[in-house]
Amino acid sequence: MGQGIAARPQEKEELLAMFEEQIVEVLEWLAAFSPDEAGGVTRLLYSDTWLSTQHALAERMKSYGFVTEFDEVGNLFGKLPGEHTEASSILTGSHIDTVVQGGKYDGAYGIAASLLALRYLHDRYGKPKRTMEVVALCEEEGSRFPMAYWGSGSIAGKRDFEQVAHLQDIDEVSFVDAMEKCGFGRGSGRSSRRHDIGAFIEVHIEQGAVLETEKVAVGVVDAIAGQRRMKFEVTGESNHAGTTPMHMRRDALEGVSAMILELRREATRQGAPLVATVGRLNVLPNVPNVVPGKVMFTVDARHADEAALGLFCKWVMETFKRLADERQLEISGMEWFCEKPVPMDAGIIRHLDEISRELSISSKRMVSGAGHDAQMFEHICPTGMLFVPSRGGISHSPLEYTAPSELAVGVLVLTELLYRLGYGEEAL
Amino acid sequence: MGQGIAARPQEKEELLAMFEEQIVEVLEWLAAFSPDEAGGVTRLLYSDTWLSTQHALAERMKSYGFVTEFDEVGNLFGKLPGEHTEASSILTGSHIDTVVQGGKYDGAYGIAASLLALRYLHDRYGKPKRTMEVVALCEEEGSRFPMAYWGSGSIAGKRDFEQVAHLQDIDEVSFVDAMEKCGFGRGSGRSSRRHDIGAFIEVHIEQGAVLETEKVAVGVVDAIAGQRRMKFEVTGESNHAGTTPMHMRRDALEGVSAMILELRREATRQGAPLVATVGRLNVLPNVPNVVPGKVMFTVDARHADEAALGLFCKWVMETFKRLADERQLEISGMEWFCEKPVPMDAGIIRHLDEISRELSISSKRMVSGAGHDAQMFEHICPTGMLFVPSRGGISHSPLEYTAPSELAVGVLVLTELLYRLGYGEEAL
After folding, report:
1. What is the CATH number of the domain that holds B331?
2. What is the tens place of the pLDDT at every residue in A303-316?
3. Cβ burial A214-237 (10 Å sphere, 16+ → b, else e)
4. Residues pairing with A365 in the sheet
5. Chain-chain contact of B274 with A300 (C-beta, under 8 angstroms)
6. How many domains does one find in chain B?
7. Measured at the alpha carbon of residue B383, what is the angle toward residues B382 and B387, in degrees to the nearest 5?
8. Do A237 and A218 fall within a single domain?
């Protein structure tokens, strides 16, 4: 059994029952600040409801005994000062913003779980050996402004005010004005950049259906997949659909169809953690009685291994070129987005594996196909991630759902991990 | 050599030289009434330039010795009354309207060729045995209002004022108002419906690249292809492109790609006169990092043989259903447009074959994949069509082009045919 908080089986069940009740209460309370008409949550960076949510969260942190602080971009920290003030902090949390018509769990779950875990540890064990902090990161989704990971990136030194100086949202409101209207911006509070963080832990919904399908309680994240995004334009000849015999056609859509099937076949053959997707495709002129002359489409490819991802993208370029050549189609392609895979910390992974085993919680190692704040923190400290199931793999939707009992398991594992990092024998 | 107008080789060359010069003059003159900024012609039904073109054409017909008349929808007839007034008329011509940013040849060539052919016959041989008429049909393209074949359909009894009573163009101008502003409409002139037509002949640019590719001077149309248009909706599951392993996807676009390739493979295997096209395709949500959940697309299938077209469409429905089922995709499909093949008159085809052979003009029998006014006339009289090459198969574009020498060959064949039908020994 666990070395720490749930040493007896009876205690594990009691803790799960408690966390189940608490996590539902906090998530419903958070969602209620930013309801939208679709039944989900819309909480865009620096919006009115974003601000009221952060302030309400600060009040709740205070009521739980945390010392609160905003940094100058609006990240909210709830701190439990440690005995050893010179030791680096353990930070845990996630992002408070959502996409438009998002759900109650993406981001919010990581904050709520961290809040409850640290509150429990503080109530039961008092002052930690080292400082522990829950963080409600101001932004991750990139849904209001063309800027993602603003919260975690600012802490990690990967984002700065220069990068947002000229950004506007869809209503032409400037990033800087929106930030300053909320009371944040350069010099408004503690500088966001941190050099005193010893570890970052994020729990999050999986946003995929692997845990649910395989009936596994938690996913221990090995790595956040690298992503490459390419766009292609295939040009054939736009012709009259009635007067152009089949053998005289250079149909761009037929060529692209062959590319899509080949991409799917090869990605399926290689299998996890590789995924590859043609998500956007537009046809010109897109008229029922005209042979398509041009097709523009995207490829999104992800893999936990940088070299394997590079090889796959090379295969894509070569294969598409061959398929185009065979059909006398022209093709141009370019990569417009490239993010390297981010490995999670081996020590934290080992802890999570052990905790799951000791608490008899089913777990599996997995790669996160989605991006997360954790990938920013990995630049500055050991970082770990834990997933809980997403029903139907659905996220970024009002239909996003994880059962209370599943949410509680994630809180329990996180609590045990934070105990080890902040209170246990190995804490320093 | 020809039995009629070009009995000596020398005469053929003289006639071709004359027609070449004349046809270019008439086509450039017509185009100049409705130039558009793209360098082509835009002459929409009942527009100002449409009206001035029809009136100018009427004046030119008069100057050539034709008796002119508009019917109540704005079809313009230039008549050479025949000796035998009780005999039915021979009608020849095409449509005066164009698509938006069309070319100088589609429609206009058929009118100009008919005008020059009848003028020549009249000048050389005088009064025909039976009445001969050139017609500038008011509308065929369906480009201004959602109504096509308005001119020929009104003559053939396939169109009537009831059908246009509530139509509007994109600027919400009513069909009836536009028609009346030009001086046409119910009771404004001769009733459009005709019962006195003995044959209709239309020469037209091919709008395909078969004649050009095969280096053949004229196409003798066997039939106008039947058309069926279907639309399909394929539904899979819209998922996160990063977190959904390949084997857990139900990717609507991947399924539709397989359908497009199968359609192409089978249509190519069957070959001419079958053609099948996926021209319009839309993806939902059409975002680079989301697996496509839904794809809507169209199939346009054409064939000269009604039964073969029916069998092919049945194959399409069954094959798409099977490909969807194999992938656990849902599919719904419906046919929203069905036009039967229209055979051209065997006697006229025989005449055209003979004339080409006697004049040593290369020709081939072909199916028109595009629709034409001829298919309306086929309901009321023996009907024939002749094609001349389209450079690059291009039409409905300012780039539409047929060389003057190729245009002249079409005029010569038409002239010989009209001689046979109106002047020759078999004329009555």
Report:
1. 3.30.70.360
2. 999 999 999 999 99
3. eebbbbbbbbbbbbbbbbbbbbbb
4. A220
5. no
6. 2
7. 155
8. no
Q: Are A102 and A190 found together in one domain?
A: yes
A36 close to B (CB below 8 A): no
Cα dihedral A137→A141→A146→A148 (10° resolution)? 50
Cβ within 8 Å of B, A 264-283:
264, 267-268, 271-272, 274-283
Residues of B in contact with A272 (CB under 8 A): 245-246
Instruction: Quote the pLDDT of residue A3.
Output: 58
pLDDT tens, chain B, 428 aa long: 345 777 677 899 999 999 999 999 999 999 999 998 888 999 999 999 999 999 999 999 999 999 999 999 999 999 999 999 999 999 999 999 999 999 999 999 999 999 999 999 999 999 999 999 999 999 999 999 999 999 999 999 999 999 999 999 999 999 999 999 999 999 998 999 999 999 999 999 999 999 999 999 999 999 999 999 999 999 999 989 999 999 999 999 999 999 999 999 999 999 999 999 999 999 999 989 899 999 999 999 999 999 999 999 999 999 999 999 999 999 999 998 899 999 999 999 999 999 999 999 999 999 999 999 999 999 999 999 999 999 999 898 999 999 999 999 999 999 999 999 999 887 87
AA letter at B181? K
| Alpha-carbon gap, residue A342 to A379, rounded angstroms | 9
Q: Do A279 and B260 touch (CB under 8 A)?
A: no
Residue of B nearest to A291 (CA): B279
End of a domain among A339, A373, A407? A339
Amino acid at B415: T
Contact A241 B277 (CB under 8 A): yes
B235 and B372 together in one domain: no
Measured CA to CA, the distance from residue B294 to residue B288 in angstroms comes to: 14
Give the gap in angstroms from C-alpha A124 to the nearest C-alpha of chain B. Answer: 37
Residue B242 structural domain: 226-339
Q: How many CB atoms lie within 10 A of CB B65?
A: 12
B327 and B396 both lie in a single domain: no
B2 is a domain residue: no
Taking a contact as any Cβ pair under 8 Å apart, which residues of chain A between 37 and 66 contact chain B? none
Beta bridge partners of A202: A385
Measure CB to CB from residue A393 to each of B244, B246, B278 and give the nearest one.
B244
| CB-CB contact of B225 with B368 (8 Å) | yes
What pTM value is reported for the model? 0.87
Contacts of B243 in chain A (CB under 8 A): 206-210, 368-370, 393, 395
Give a yes or no: residue B49 inside a domain: yes
B217 and B256 in a single domain? The answer is: no
Does residue B92 form part of some domain? yes
HSE-up of A389 (CA within 13 Å, CB side)?
20
A264 close to B246: Cβ distance less than 8 angstroms: yes
Chain B residues whose CB is inside 8 A of the A227 CB are 242
Across the interface, whether the CB atoms of A241 and B290 are under 8 A apart is answered no
Which of A225, A243, A286 is the closest to B242 by Cβ? A225
Task: Yes or no: say if A11 and A2 are a contact pair by the CB < 8 Å rule.
Answer: no
Q: Are residues A174 and A35 in the same domain?
A: yes
Pairing of strands B76-80, A239-240: unpaired
Q: Same domain, yes or no, for B256 and B306?
A: yes
Instruction: Render pLDDT for A149-165 as a digit per residue (tens, 0 to 9).
Output: 999 999 999 999 999 99
Complex ipTM: 0.87
**Which residue's structure tokens are 């392609």?**
A333
Same domain, A171 and A258: no
Interchain pair A245, B272: CB under 8 A = yes
Does residue A381 sit within a domain?
yes
Interface of B with A in 359-398 (CB under 8 A): 368-371, 393, 395-396
CB of A239 within 8 Å of any CB in chain B? yes
Pair of tokens at residue A27: 């998530």
